[in-house]
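R.M. (postdoc): so does anyone remember the format we settled on? I'll just put the structure tokens first.
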């Protein structure tokens, strides 16, 4: 009888602990330390378009991606930290080019905001641009210079593509789908399946998931704590300021150039990853801008750059 009383007491304490955890979960976070499916809203807005999450396939695809990002902790945490460094660079370009802010999340899902990302298909850079596409959008792609890795120029190129797709389809969401599948494929399927929107197409799994990945990533990054991500200000990757150096003549040795400007070759490449060789030839009449990081900003102890979006952190 004594053991039965002890067991009952243990079960009572355990039940109380679970109830307390559930109570905290209800008020603090949609996804806490235990596994819980995040709630799906009735509608969600992306790039000015309202998506009704009622039809089974639309709702379940969004649910799949939102659940995935909630529990893919490493990459989701990493991309929120990186966004503090890169969104302040990308957002003004999107504004200038007339592309909705929500396309920031396209760069997120394409590369996890890694400027050096390369896919098995040889798409490169933060926006994952193919070599032929890059050239068609005005980027230089050569043995010495590959501007697909140039954050500013590649962002402009991606915006150029997206604006042409929007002009063709009249929908930013369908334009986003074409960024993954290509305008030719999307246009062909719209015609063959007699539909007007990418949501209503039967496509391969990657493209079918693509637009829902964009929506889900936006949801998580707009309110990380709601989905269980706890980040402090000093854990975000700080913004880094640069001095610009215009180069009009060949640089025979980039290591020497870097040392002359007070940084290492590694640091030069880190922020100018579009440099693809140890030297930089410059054709007559041409020029390049190299970014030289301010040394004080390279150290967390002396970098006091602001937090880009307050809801990313809890302090």
């Amino acid at each position: 009888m004594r053991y039965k009383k002890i067991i009952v007491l243990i079960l009572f304490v355990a039940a109380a602990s679970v109830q307390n955890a559930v109570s905290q979960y209800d008020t603090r976070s949609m996804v806490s330390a235990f596994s819980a499916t995040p709630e799906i809203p009735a509608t969600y807005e992306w790039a000015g378009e309202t998506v009704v999450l009622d039809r089974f396939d639309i709702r379940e695809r969004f649910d799949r991606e939102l659940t995935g990002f909630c529990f893919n902790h490493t990459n989701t945490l990493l991309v929120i930290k990186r966004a503090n460094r890169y969104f302040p660079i990308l957002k003004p370009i999107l504004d200038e080019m007339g592309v909705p802010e929500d396309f920031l999340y396209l760069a997120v899902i394409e590369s996890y905001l890694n400027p050096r990302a390369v896919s098995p298909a040889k798409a490169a850079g933060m926006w994952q641009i193919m070599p032929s596409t890059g050239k068609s959008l005005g980027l230089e792609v050569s043995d010495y210079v590959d501007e697909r890795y140039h954050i500013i120029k590649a962002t402009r190129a991606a915006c150029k593509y997206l604006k042409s797709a929007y002009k063709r389809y009249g929908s930013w969401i369908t334009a986003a789908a074409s960024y993954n599948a290509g305008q030719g494929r999307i246009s062909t399927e719209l015609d063959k399946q007699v539909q007007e929107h990418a949501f209503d197409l039967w496509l391969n799994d990657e493209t079918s998931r693509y637009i829902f990945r964009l929506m889900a990533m936006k949801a998580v990054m707009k309110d990380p704590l709601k989905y269980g991500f706890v980040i402090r200000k000093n854990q975000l990757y700080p913004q880094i300021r640069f001095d610009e150096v215009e180069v009009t003549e060949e640089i025979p040795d980039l290591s020497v150039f870097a040392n002359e400007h007070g940084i290492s070759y590694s640091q030069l490449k880190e922020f100018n990853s579009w440099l693809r060789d140890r030297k930089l030839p410059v054709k007559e009449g041409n020029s390049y801008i190299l970014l030289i990081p301010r040394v004080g900003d390279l150290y967390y102890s002396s970098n006091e750059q602001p937090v880009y979006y307050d809801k990313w952190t809890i302090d």
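R.M.: ...and that's the designed sequence above, right after the tokens. Also worth knowing: The two ends are 51 Å apart (CA to CA). The CA atoms of residues 116 and 125 lie 5 Å apart.
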